[in-house]
Structure formats: structure tokens, C-alpha cells
Amino acid sequence: MTQETHASDDYEARIEAAESSPLKAAARWVVALASAALGDAEYEANEPQVVVHSRQDDSVVLRITTSSLEEAERLVVQIREDLETLSTDEFKAEWEGAGDKS
After folding, report:
1. How far apart are CA 76 and CA 65, in angstroms?
2. How many CB atoms lie within 10 A of CB 97?
3. Whole-structure pTM over 0.90, yes or no?
4. Is the distance from CB of 79 to CB of 13 less than 8 angstroms?
5. How far apart are CA 39 and CA 3, in angstroms?
């Protein structure tokens, strides 16, 4: 009997803040504060990202920038479910092209 392996054996998904230049980060904070002052609490000062890392060397396999923390939370749940149910090859095929373009 062979043991079934899943992508979660090779990868893990995390929510992380996007790294940006100090000028861009300051501009995002100004916009977020202005949005909050106008009653729009939806704008995030930090761009949340869902990042899939290799468990072997912590390299980035997939990075998806989202517009809000709520969207990132929904997406990371979906990705983690796929990591638990799909093989590594199936996961790669399913999420190929979904990541941010470098």
C-alpha cells in the first residue's frame, strides 16, 4: 500500500504584508487614514499577500497580493484546503498563473 502525499507535505501558506518602499508605504498610510476619516474602513495600509512557501528551503512558490485582509483570509483558507487535498503536481497545475507577475 502506498501512502498518499499531499502538497501540504511540501508547501505551507501564510498571510504576509507586502514589502514596499518607504515612500509607497507612507503614501498607502496617508490614503488609509484619509479613507478612515471619510468613513471607509475598507482600505488597507499594508497590502496583504498570501504567500506559499516551500517547506524545504522556505523559497516562495506562489505570491498573491489581495486588496484587504478579509480577502487574504478567505484565500489562505482556500489554498490551505487545496494543499491538504491535492498532490504537489495537482496544486501546481491548479494555481499556475494565479500569482503576482514578477
Report:
1. 11
2. 7
3. no
4. yes
5. 53
